[in-house]
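Shipment paperwork, digital attachment
Item: protein structure file
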Amino acid sequence: IDNAFVGRLDTNWLGALAFGTILLSSFSWVFNFIIHVTTESMSKVFGDGESKDLVGTTQVSLLVSLLVGLLTIIFLYLFQAPLFSLVGVRPELLEVTKSYFFTRLIGHPFLVLFLTTISLLRGISQVKATMLLLLLSTVINSGLNYLFLYHYRLGPEYAAWGTNISVIICFFIALAFHLNK
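Attachment content:
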């Protein structure tokens, strides 16, 4: 979503977003096993009908996700310079890349938590709810990107704020939905 909105405004901004997105997506991909393990574990527990085990699986999954999200922030912050060099950030794009990247980094733990909560819901056969939550997240992100970038004419880091806000809102909605099931 961020690339689609920013790409229509400035190609340098789009380049900066691409570098930030490469790093964040790579780290999300490395820890993608959390999502698959969560869905599989929750499905097994749900199928067994043990509500006590559902609570335990939920707690462990969310705790591991939070830790992964926080450790990712620390790692990416500490090793930003060599990572930016590795992906080829040019000097003229460095400040815009940092601005977008660090803003997205703030919301990264919530992204991991949101995706894990979506997996928990899939594990208890709430596939329609997960689809609706992902759609809601996309709509909120699109609306905020439109407001921030086109209406208020703010910089590309505000596309990252749109992503962060949409993920945070939808994480709490997904968590509330899961806890009420």
